[in-house]
Amino acid sequence: MNEELPTIPANNKDRYFKGQQVNENYICFMRHHWIYLFREYIYFVIFALIAIYALLNIEIIQNVLRGSRELKMLFLTAFLIGTFFMHRFFIRMLNYFVDVGIITDMRFVDHQKSLFFKDNMDSVDMGQIQNIERIGEGVLPELFGYGDIKIYLTASAGVKIYYFIPNVKFHYRCIARQKEARQYILTERHQPTLLPTGAVTQANLANSTQTLQNNNTNQNNTPPQAGLINNVREANTLSQNTIDIRNHSTINAKIDSPFAFIPNGGRPIPLEDEMPK
To answer: Alpha-carbon distance 99 to 94, whole Å?
Structure first.
């Protein structure tokens, strides 16, 4: 007979990105919208056209520069400026691909990285997010589907804005859903299971019912004074079996473990009107 092997929990440490935690699940990632580089595209096209024109008319340019020192200095200055903007364009393109935002089921990670000068990583726990705002104003954001996402944190000075987010509606819904799921998990983890006021466990209720039936059977054979004493004892038994959470200090003073007072193994206990009669 084949035995089932025990399941081993997945270890996601540094699985999809550096800094991923062991129990953290990757959801998606995002970059800036391509319109973020629109100005760089315009500069690149302008200097590319100038460079092509200069190469096609190189002989005319040489004849013009041959007898004028000032024109040579002007041409050299224009050449250096064009080279600077060309290098700037390719550096911005590389930075566009390495600067990403990562959404997991626990955090929102903003990895701000450049080719030479910057490598920052900022993470926001989904449980610390208080509100999310999606900003998309103008014709271009509505036409191309990008926008900004503003995140309000529970801290006093906690407002983060992420610009030029592509498919902003999808990423907004993704962050909102992971925020709700994360906050629900944290709330359930730190909220102990308590009995409602005046609730009685099923075992204690069965014992009390059996005691009342036995006492009612023997009540005809008991003198009136003894029956009064038995009724008092029954009332004391019910009061001892009833847990009233209005006085936590009395309960916790008698129990060493803070979770030992959870009855019925932590399972929900029916209210008084739901208990069998």
So the answer is: 9
